[in-house]
Amino acid sequence: MNIIKNSLTGLARGTYRLARGTYRLARGTYRLALFAALSMAAVGCAEDEGMVFSDIARIQMGSADDYTFSFVWSSADVQRQTIYLPISVIGGPTDGDRHVEVEQVEEYDVVYTKDRLNYVVDSTLTPRTDQAVAGTHYVAFNSSEYASLLTVPAGQVQSSIGIILLRHPSLATQKVRLRVRLKSNADFGPGEHKYQERTIVISDMLERPSAWTTESWNTLYRSFGDYSRTKHLFMMQVVGDKVDDAWFARAQDASFRNYWKMKFVEALALYNADPANIAAGLAPMRVDETDPNSTLISFPSELN
Fold it and tell me: Is the pLDDT of residue 257 over 80?
């Protein structure tokens, strides 16, 4: 019995020591991982701070948000359109014009494979099928047409770059994405990492205007709420005209914005109270008119 007891005691002590060793190893691994993460963050911050105070001129996009453009507002004879993306120069102005270079970035869908404990063990990258094609959806960036469109004029640090979009028949049923990246060249180095790329969503269908962002702090979002195609069509019906980026530019004015918001709220209340709409199952208005469980259309009540 004493032999068994001693063996069990020894085994317990060994297990305890192993557990303590495993704990110390795990704690050491955690500390190492934490140190590595903090070091990478510090390096990242240092790099961005270095860019700000460097004597090298650097360039970056004015926003990282998707830019949405639709030909749906254009007459049938319009087959191409130039859009302009704001850019900023980090560093002072120069006496001469400076050239900007851009390139298309290939985008991928990522599918993750997980084990039975839900840990990622593998991933598969597949090129997106909705990427814009040069010569079909936009003019290739090596075209001479970009000479003046990709230029920061002398004396300026705030400017814009022009991208020439093409109206392909397929855009009437399928939108595409053009992911654009700023390239380093003799005139500019890269600015902040998150502002080096921007996606342009191109279509010939009704799309969310670029100014109607999804950030809760945005004044337009606080005025008109979440976007849906049904709400957009309803707003156009109330306004009696298109509600596009030009309209939203006017909506930056508080009096214009609040006037139309109250019009939308009143019109929606009348629509939802209309016996004919109720009998037809159209009221209350929903994001998806064919789904009785779909989210109700609404506008924020407060003025801003």
Answer: yes
**Is the C-alpha dihedral spanning 261, 217, 206, 279 positive or negative?**
negative
pLDDT category of residue 55 using cuts at 50, 70 and 90: low
List 99's β-bridge partners, or say none: 151
Token pair for 38:
């903090």
CB neighbourhood size of 288 (10 A): 12
pLDDT given for residue 36 in this prediction = 46
- Residue among 137, 195, 203 nearest 175 (CA): 203
* In the chain, where the domains are located: 1-53, 56-206, 208-304
Any idea which residue has 């994001």 for tokens? 287
Hey, which bits of 185-271 come out as E strands? 189-190, 197-203
92-124 burial, b for 16+ CB within 10 Å, e for fewer? eebeeebebbbebeeeeeeeeeeeeeeeeeeee
Query: Structure tokens of 69?
Result: 């453009």
Give the model's pLDDT for residue 253: 95
SS3 182: strand
CA distance readout (Å), 179 to 13, 99, 149, 237? 60, 20, 17, 33
Token digits of residue 54: 């460097």
Write out the CATH class of domain 56-206: mainly beta
Rounded CA separation 262/260 (Å): 5
Q: What angle do CA 99, 101, 107 make, to 5 degrees?
A: 160
How confident is residue 210, by pLDDT bands cut at 50, 70 and 90? confident
Nearest to 297 by CA among 165, 130, 277: 277
Task: Classify residue 251 by burial, with Cβ atoms within 10 Å: 0-12, 13-18, 19+.
Answer: buried
For 159, half-sphere exposure in the C-beta direction (CA atoms, 13 angstrom radius) is: 21
Write the single-letter amino acid at 217.
Answer: W
